[in-house]
Amino acid sequence: MNKSKKFSLPQSLELSENKSSLFRNEFENTVKGYNRLPEDVLLRIFSHLNQKDLNSVQQVCQKWKQGALNPSLWKNLKFQGLHTTESVNMAMRKIWMFEQLEEIYIKDVMEASALLRQIYRCLPNLQYLIIRYCDNLSCQTMKAVLRKCKNLKLLDLKGTSFRDISFYDYLPRLEHLKVLNLSDNASLTTKDMIDISLNCRNLEEFYVSLLKTDTKISS
């Protein structure tokens, strides 16, 4: 009769399994500990995270998701390379959710005018607005932004084209505007630059390039 043989694991493997089990238990206890944190403590921790990290921690559990979506944590949003209606709609929902936003960065976004309409509806206290390399924006929408977002300190429109540039006349209404970037804008004339410089009294930084010579001035 064959006797079954007992095989023992090598000691190094046993130690490895014990360490793995110990690490797993410590990790589970740590996660449980974080889940028991009061909401105000969790929010203080999350306040040190950037937009990317806040999106990541939402995947951990429902409590963390709710905490990470607290509007008080979101001071800025960045939207780049949105080329589908679905992605633009998602961006619009975020703007609606986070009414305490101070800064919005938009670059290479399809239907950027739709985002601007959402901005002036939801974020009258916005301070920093960057819209770079977006095509054929509505001038009327831009005028509405300048009328309703009166606390803008920075307006960056580098490389962004508009159907017409009559909204330049609205820039002097921004009493808090300190920084203006109109570089890479082929429609900007020398006259526009002079008018803006003279009328925007509190402007400290003004970036331009690709100036189009105005016929009346050059003559």
TrEMBL record:
SMART domains: FBOX. Coiled coil: none annotated. It comes from the Eukaryota. Residues 31-77 form the F-box domain. It holds the Pfam family F-box-like. This is F-box domain-containing protein.
